[in-house]
Amino acid sequence: MAWRTMWRALRDGPATEPAPAADPLLAESLAARLHAAAQRRLGRGLAIRQVDSGSCNGCELEIHMLGSIVYDLERLGLRFVASPRHADVLLVTGPVTRNMHDALLRSWAATPDPKFVVAVGDCAIDGGVFKGSTAIIGGIDAAVPVDAFVRGCPPTPAAILEVLCTLIEANTPPPERVRRI
Amino acid sequence: MNARTLLLTATAEACAPVPRRHLTGSQWAAFVTALTQDSSLELRAMWADGVSVYTIFLAPEDGTVIFASVSVELGLYQALSPARPSAVLYERMIHDLWGHTAADGLDMRPFLDHGNWTATPPLAIRPLPNLTAPEPKEFLPAEGEGLHRIPVGPVHAGIIEPGHFRFTAQGEIIVRLEARLGYLHKGTLGLMQGKSPRVAARFAARLSGDSTVAHAIAFARAAEAAAHVLPPPRAEALRCVFAEIERIANHLGDIGGIINDAAFALMQARFVWHREHLLRATETAFGHRLMMDAVVPGGVSVDLAPGGEDTIIQALDTLAAEWDALLATYDNSASLADRVVSTGTLSASLAASFAPGGFIGRASGQAADLRRVPGYGHYRDIDVEMPVLTAGDVDARVRIRMAEVVESARLLRHILPRLPEGALLERLDAVSGEGLGWAEGFRGDIWHWVRVEGGQIAAAFMADPSWRQWPLLEVAVEGNIVADFPLCNKSFNCSYSGVDL
Fold first, then answer.
1. Residues B209, A55: C-beta atoms closer than 8 Å
2. Class level of CATH domain B3-129
3. B198 exposed, middle or buried (CB, 10 Å; 0-12, 13-18, 19+)?
4. Which candidate from A53, A69, A132 shows the least CB-CB separation from B269?
5. A63 near A101, Cβ under 8 Å?
6. How does pLDDT run across B364-390, given as a tens digit for each residue?
């Protein structure tokens, strides 16, 4: 029995896949934003609060997969938290509906500074297919400032993970700072 | 006269594949009265346009689909909710979107309208500017000693859609739950007007992302019926493939999610791994993990990629290889059984009166499945076997899902090697007409209706089964502890976006 388990583990390897590489350009601009604001560094770990401000739940399905054994978000220092009060990053999906506008603003206000907003999905960029509806106010940046967008309808978990990894990269203290400590 | 005979006296309007019986106000009132004595007709969907209210009934015994409408007179129509309590949410939605009031309705509080829209009612012939400030939401009372209220949402602790849950609890026990939705209202129906069915299909595919295929199929069938076009056989068979993959993928995610809510992370890890594996196979075979926009009016927009069949069969094989071990773990884990057995019970009698469809219905004695009765498309040529349980608890809903995964995998293995050759898409001419389409999504029965004028959509509706499932969730959690709500909620997994429109 034990041999069979060992053989299977050797044959299949771990279910979790290597993390994607960060996009250097985006990392640089995000790091610059953090630096310019002269905000206290958060350290490598990032707490993420997901807010659905009008999505069709397609993006939620894929964000859900990030927590799965295949992507295993937590090994990268990323974790989903239950309240915006505990979050560094708001991961927002969907266009902003008029009925969710207030809840999104409150979630944003409840998130302590410094904070990042990542808009996930085509709807989050400019309303997507729902652009022009009187029931929405637009993409996420019509309500709160956005730091990074993830394209796709819905974006694949790998695409979302790539932007989140980039955020960590930008969030890692630069080497000279480490030496001073 | 019984309800069905009454309908035959009404005018038949042209609608394919089922003629629409249009009733005057007094005929409708007589029909509603007759329905109180007649439980053979199940309410399956209800909506409106500027001048009429539309309803779909299904007679489960013989599979007859009945499509009836009533003229709205001076903004009023006789409420259906006294005869069919499942009509309450539909009536509230109709009032919010079109402004028609259900006379003698059981509950006329707003549902989708939170007072934030710029013009109301948004789909009325002449909406008026909304100049009043939003009012605080009103919830049903629950009074007694030691009761307290717990407001939850719209932003929840997990990664789920927004909605407000108002619990009234006595200590740990839920006395009453009320779900207030509408947060995701995107004005989808209004956006569809004036567009061609081909363009509007993108909205059907985004009503509820997890049912993107099923909603797209129902919409495409409605648009094809209106244009009197039949999709090519290969397209019909591919639609079945898409739909069954979607069903398996959603059930795998749901089973894992439910079990995870009972703190059994090992099984969740395996089920979700299989889900990811299947989604990747789907991307290889059809170019998109969730197959969004793969179904279009007239057929399908994507063919099976070379080698795609093997990739999907391999994913199913991998699942089948581990399936018995997963099932044994589920059966032999006392801590899991302790959480799911007799939790969130939905009685068979309540399920019978609401006809929720899907795994919720099948776990509570309701055999309804549109693939079997009345059937549609490629399913008319194949047999679909569905078990029915009567326990109605979380465990029964998990077991029905497991059985559906096995059956859907069997269907895929049957259909994939026998895909007919030929074209994928039939042209839809810019004609006028009215059409009804249905499909069995992973949640249950989906109904779409379109009225096309000169190739453009004049009016449309997309009915998710969640309309009849949300009220049952509210009842099923009564008497359970607050901590078991996530477990119950996940086992129902009703769509928020699907009803918020």
1. yes
2. alpha beta
3. middle
4. A69
5. no
6. 999 989 999 899 999 998 999 988 999
Element containing residue B90 per DSSP (H, E): helix B87-98
Contacts for B32-37: CB closer than 8 Å, 24+ residues apart = B32/B78, B32/B79, B32/B80, B32/B82, B32/B83, B33/B83, B34/B1, B34/B2, B34/B3, B34/B6, B35/B3, B35/B80, B35/B83, B35/B84, B36/B82, B36/B83, B37/B2
Among residues 88-147 of chain B, which lie with CB inside 8 Å of chain A?
114, 116-119, 122
In DSSP notation, A37-77 reads TTPPP--S-EEEEEEESS--SHHHHHHHHHTSTTT-GGGGT
Residues 6+ apart with CB under 8 A from A55: A93, A94, A121, A123, A124, B161, B184, B209, B497
Which stretches of B374-455 are DSSP H helices? 394-415
> Which is nearest to B184 in space by CA: A172, A100, A40?
A100
Nearest CB neighbour to B273, from listed A70, A84, A136: A70
Does the bond joining A154 to the residue before it have cis omega, within 30 degrees of 0?
Answer: yes
| Domain boundaries, given as residue ranges, for chain B | 3-129, 190-465
Q: Is B272 in Cβ contact with A69 (below 8 Å)? A: yes
Tell me whether the CATH fold assigned to B3-129 matches the one assigned to B190-465: no
Amino acid at B464: D
pLDDT of residue B62: 87
Please compute the mean of the pLDDT values over residues B447-467 and round it to a whole number.
96
Distance from CA of A139 to the nearest CA of B (A): 12
- ipTM score for this prediction: 0.92
Give the β-pairing of B456-463 and B445-453: antiparallel
Residue B84 has pLDDT above 90, yes or no: yes
Cα A19–Cα A48–Cα A26 angle in degrees, nearest 5:
55
Q: Is the minimum CB–CB distance between A51 and chain B shorter than 8 Å? A: yes
CATH class for the region spanning B190-465: mainly alpha
Predicted TM-score (pTM) of the model is 0.93
- With CB atoms and an 8 Å threshold, state whether A156 touches B289: yes
Please state the three-class secondary structure of A140-162 as a single string. HHHCCCCCEEECCCCCCHHHHHH
- Interchain CB distance below 8 Å, B155 and A51: yes
